[in-house]
Amino acid sequence: MTAIPVPFSGAPRVDLMPRSEVARRERDQLVRLWVWIVLGAIVVAFLIIAGAFAFKFLADQRLVAEQARTNALLTEIASLSEVSQALATEAELTDYRTEAMATDLAWSPVIAKITSILPADTALIGVDFTVGGVPIGEDPTLEQGLIGTVTFDSPTPIDIVPLIRSLRGVDGVLYADGQSVTSSQVSAGRYSYLLTVDFDQTVYSNEFATEEGGE
Questions:
Q1: 127 in Cβ contact with 147 (< 8 Å)
Q2: pTM above 0.85, yes or no
Q3: 179 vs 94, which has greater pLDDT?
């Protein structure tokens, strides 16, 4: 038989390194690999921790900013609450003043209206009026504003009927009638006349209403 030659090229190589050296180098290579793996893991863990701290820092800063904004809003709401309370108090006082001043009277015109119809030598010596209610309707001439009696004094007897008619014709008088005629208890020889008179609400001064409209 003819032997078939084995083809090869180049010079033959022989590994003369001991098996123990080969094993040592393999261990060193493996150790280096694990060292790099551990270092990589440490670096990754450090980056994760650093990222977490950075995220926490940003979150804390945002929380502080939101808390400051919340406190500012609470302060603003508190100030608005004080303003609202002050406005409510002002409105309450205004309503109270409106109600209190709604029946304020202009006394001088009332007295002038009564004395304008008196005969000569007749004097107004007494008034006893009760103020009516707060204006409700739009026409003050239809609502009672002043209710009471007036007392006149005269040195001579006068006809009370024309006096009552004259009083009924006074602007603002809703009703007038006589009650009594007596001898004066103040001066002897004089006479007193007691009449009932109701005025409408045109006798109210309306000063407060004018003030409110001008504000």
A1: no
A2: no
A3: 179
